[in-house]
Amino acid sequence: MEALQALVLTNAQLRELLTEAAKQGAALAVRELRADLHQTPEDASLQKLRA
User: Fold this and answer.
1) In this predicted structure, what is the pLDDT of residue 9?
2) DSSP 23-47
3) So what's the pLDDT on residue 17?
4) What sign results for the dihedral spanned by CA atoms 36, 37, 39, 43?
5) What are the counts of helices (DSSP H) followed by strands (DSSP E) for the chain?
6) What gap in Å lies between CA 38 and CA 23, rounded to an integer?
7) What is the pTM of this model?
8) pLDDT, tens digit, for every residue of 34-49?
9) How far is CA 25 from CA 14, 16, 50, in A?
């Protein structure tokens, strides 16, 4: 049987990791929403059709 590697984090490390991930996710969502707000409805439709 193969040996498996494990990563052990303290509660504080895990909390910091998750907090940073949440901040980055929120920042990405805000950037996308701001970009959507600056688009005309025609631009938004074209972008959806191209995707």
Assistant:
1) 97
2) HHHHHHHHHHHHHHHTS-HHHHHHH
3) 98
4) positive
5) 2, 0
6) 23
7) 0.61
8) 988 887 888 888 888 9
9) 16, 14, 24
